[in-house]
């Protein structure tokens, strides 16, 4: 697809309304605040193709599994993020003619996502049949400062006539999910209520009884003066609204302010929902649009203060990285440990908005470095709270002990139903263990291990203990019938990454046990009792670590992705006729599985996670072998390759991979942006800048940087929070500046040399020292 969005450092700008691109734009221009989110659907009715999407975090539907052949162990349902009450709707009619951009002539159209301020605006001129023209200027946001509130300012100006505008702001709960397995509607009406100034709609899900109450109010101003209008109540099934008419002469601007509060039974008792919604709405109305807007600007200024990346000299790269950071910040804000990060966030339905290993493997580093550590901690607590369900899942699959976390979940239960993923893609357990290490290593919050960490680690270790099998003839442990991160191989034996992350989990769990025994003896005893952990188990873990089998090729001195990998045809991707790519759209699944082509980092994922344990030569040999076979058909792939390429000094490759990840959605690389944006891979993009070009690592409690300028930028800078300090690292043409924007001093190592950066001061290091 030809890129159609204008380049701008802070805004995503679309000029010209192109209906065939509208669903892509609906994804890209989505707005959210961690609590709720909204695709960039129009406020007024639109009869053209559109994917309506208004989502409430944590509100989902257990849609009955649909599968050809049932296999024992499959989950009963697939959890769907729910398209919920449309609270943005404002129908407009001009002298009785409805405004619908699918039927009007549209000119001077612009749609702008202002990432600095967190607003979505749209302006256009619409000409109706018969020649009447109006100008519309609309802006809306979901408030970062008041999570339940959304606000819209919608201005209409007749351009060439005096007439009557009819405005109908409404709430409509009669909505559907496009991906519903049985075309079913998931919401039923509970109540409708009209107050003096507001209208409320309560709906509930057919299963699980999630209740959502939306309350709305509106105000109208003409030429800057508030006007009091006669309103008519409009009521339908799952629908409430107000209709009002206003006379407007040519060039008189009529502004409709619409405010909505959305509250759910996740946070309020059923009997309190309407009052909670009304209270939130009242306070928003008292504040008024301008105050809400100022709060929004301030809340986003705070987010950018902590997470911005500035790239000088390359506006496409600047826009892209800000877009990635913006989406991450509006998807997860971290106050609520029941929430997580869906691969599409609030931008679409695909992947059900559920939690995947993406969170631990890709997203955690972003939140660790750009927000208070309590936010990343909440991501860990989320899994801690699901431990019992993960144990149940392991029992369901026939394991006597241990925990197998789900590949896809909303509430801790597995809801993915393809056998090769549900039952076999067990490496996800390793990522959950690794996240605990990553968090403690980064933050120094070692108390976490005794409080929550060990229980999760021990149960995951028990799972690995039972999942491996001992082959007496070889005196080695093997792991058969798995799917590694590379989903273009199924049911393989001894996926190197899975074997490695399993053994690593056992090692780390033993290390944590030693630490607790020595440093927190009473908590250690308590936990041993609670877990009923025996000496026999820990000895077995040691034996598995010592005798784990790792497929290896002596000739090439590389780790083998799995047994038998070298028997495949190893023709590199670049020698394939490009008509075959992407493989997943051109080849049968059978052909993909037989080929050597790799969907996403697999062996390299292991070398990334456990980077400290492998020398550069090992990384180089494996990268040189696997990169040419990798098709990067998962959005999660290029970032890992980019980071390792940086470490190896393959700068061009690193930059090529970076570009592929950073503008994935803006340029619709994979031809699927209309389904929603690839939110979790956006954290990978962030890692490619900070871990890749910035060379950031935390070792022995020291933040280490090994930055270089990829050569296309005048300079770039990024922010990282580290153990109480907030640092801004600027990589220029000749030097690196580490500025401490906080009052807490920080120890950093740049190119291998330690520096103390005192509060509110900086250090400057010449590039000549580059390692
Ligand atoms: C990837 C998985 C990932 C999922 C959700 C798949 O295409 O192969 O690794 O967890 O997408 O992002």
TrEMBL record:
Pfam families: Glyco_hydro_65C (PF03633), Glyco_hydro_65m (PF03632), Glyco_hydro_65N (PF03636). Residues 322-687 form the Glycoside hydrolase family 65 central catalytic domain. InterPro entries: 6-hairpin_glycosidase_sf (IPR008928), 6hp_glycosidase-like_sf (IPR012341), Gal_mutarotase_sf_dom (IPR011013), GH65_N (IPR037018), Glyco_hydro_65_C (IPR005194), Glyco_hydro_65_M (IPR005195), Glyco_hydro_65_N (IPR005196), Malt_Pase/Glycosyl_Hdrlase (IPR017045). Residues 14-266 form the Glycoside hydrolase family 65 N-terminal domain. Residues 696-757 form the Glycoside hydrolase family 65 C-terminal domain. It comes from the Bacteria. PANTHER family: GLYCOSYL HYDROLASE-RELATED, MALTOSE PHOSPHORYLASE. Belongs to the glycosyl hydrolase 65 family. This is Maltose phosphorylase.
């Amino acid at each position: 697809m030809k890129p159609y969005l204008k380049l701008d450092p802070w805004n995503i700008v679309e000029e010209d309304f192109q209906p065939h691109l509208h669903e892509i734009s609906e994804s890209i221009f989505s707005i959210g605040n961690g609590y709720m989110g909204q695709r960039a659907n129009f406020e007024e009715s639109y009869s053209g193709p559109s994917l309506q999407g208004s989502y409430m975090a944590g509100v989902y539907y257990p849609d009955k599994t649909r599968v050809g052949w049932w296999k024992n162990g499959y989950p009963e349902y697939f959890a769907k993020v729910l398209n919920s009450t449309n609270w943005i709707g404002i129908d407009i009619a001009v002298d009785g003619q409805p405004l619908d951009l699918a039927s009007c002539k549209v000119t001077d159209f612009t749609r702008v996502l202002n990432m600095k301020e967190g607003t979505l605006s749209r302006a256009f001129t619409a000409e109706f049949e018969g020649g009447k023209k109006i100008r519309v200027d609309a802006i809306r946001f979901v408030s970062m400062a008041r999570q339940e509130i959304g606000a819209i300012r919608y201005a209409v100006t007749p351009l060439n006539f005096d007439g009557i505008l009819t405005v109908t702001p409404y709430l409509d709960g009669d909505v559907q999910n496009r991906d519903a397995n049985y075309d079913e509607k998931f919401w039923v009406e509970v109540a409708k209520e009209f107050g003096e100034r507001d209208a409320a709609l309560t709906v509930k899900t057919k299963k699980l009884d999630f209740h959502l109450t939306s309350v709305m109010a509106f105000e109208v101003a003409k030429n800057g003066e508030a006007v009091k209008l006669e309103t008519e109540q409009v009521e339908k099934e799952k629908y409430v609204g107000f209709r009002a008419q206003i006379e407007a002469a040519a060039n008189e601007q009529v502004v409709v302010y619409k405010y909505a509060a959305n509250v759910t039974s996740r946070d309020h008792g059923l009997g309190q929902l309407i009052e909670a919604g009304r209270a939130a709405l009242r306070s928003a109305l008292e504040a008024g649009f301008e105050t809400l807007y100022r709060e929004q600007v301030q809340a986003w200024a705070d987010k950018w203060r902590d997470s911005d990346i500035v790239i000088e000299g390359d506006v496409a790269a600047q826009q892209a990285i800000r877009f990635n950071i913006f989406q991450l910040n509006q998807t997860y804000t971290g106050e609520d440990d029941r929430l997580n990060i869906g691969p599409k966030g609030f931008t679409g339905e695909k992947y059900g908005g559920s939690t995947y290993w993406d969170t631990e493997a890709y997203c955690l580093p972003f939140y660790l470095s750009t927000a208070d550590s309590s936010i990343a901690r909440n991501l860990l607590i989320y899994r801690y709270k699901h431990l019992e369900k993960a144990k149940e899942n392991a029992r369901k699959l026939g394991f006597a002990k241990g925990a197998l976390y789900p590949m896809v979940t909303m509430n801790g239960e597995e809801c993915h139903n393809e056998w090769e993923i549900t039952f076999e893609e067990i490496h996800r357990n390793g990522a959950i263990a690794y996240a605990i290490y990553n968090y403690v290593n980064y933050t120094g919050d070692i108390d976490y291990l005794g409080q929550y960490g060990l229980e999760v680690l021990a149960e995951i270790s028990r799972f690995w203990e039972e999942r491996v099998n001992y082959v007496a003839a070889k005196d080695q442990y093997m792991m058969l019938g798995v799917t590694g991160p590379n989903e273009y191989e199924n049911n393989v034996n001894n996926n190197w990454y899975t074997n490695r992350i399993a053994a690593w989990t056992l090692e780390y769990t033993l290390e944590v046990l030693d630490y607790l025994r020595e440093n927190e003896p009473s908590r250690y005893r308590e936990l041993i009792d609670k877990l009923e952990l025996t000496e026999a188990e820990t000895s077995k873990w040691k034996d598995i670590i010592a005798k784990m089998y790792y497929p290896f090729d002596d000739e090439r001195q590389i780790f083998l992705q799995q047994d038998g990998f070298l028997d495949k045809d190893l023709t590199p991707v670049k020698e394939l006729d490009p008509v075959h790519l992407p493989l997943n759209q051109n080849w049968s699944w059978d052909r993909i599985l037989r080929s050597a082509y790799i969907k996403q980092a697999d062996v390299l994922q292991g070398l990334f996670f456990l980077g400290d344990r492998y020398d550069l030569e090992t990384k180089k040999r494996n990268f040189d072998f696997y990169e040419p076979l990798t098709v990067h058909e998962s959005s999660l792939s290029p970032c890992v390759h980019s980071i390792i390429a940086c470490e190896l000094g393959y700068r061009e490759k690193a930059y090529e991979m970076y570009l592929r990840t950073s503008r994935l959605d803006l340029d619709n690389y994979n031809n699927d942006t209309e389904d929603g944006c690839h939110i979790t891979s956006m954290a990978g993009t962030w890692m490619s800048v900070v871990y890749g070009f910035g060379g950031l690592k935390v070792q022995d409690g020291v933040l280490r940087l090994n930055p270089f300028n990829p050569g296309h930028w005048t300079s770039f800078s990024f922010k990282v929070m580290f153990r109480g300090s907030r640092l801004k690292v600027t990589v220029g043409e000749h030097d690196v500046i580490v500025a401490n924007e906080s009052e807490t001093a920080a120890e950093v190592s740049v190119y291998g040399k330690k520096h103390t950066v005192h509060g509110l001061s900086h250090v400057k290091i010449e590039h000549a020292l580059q390692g």
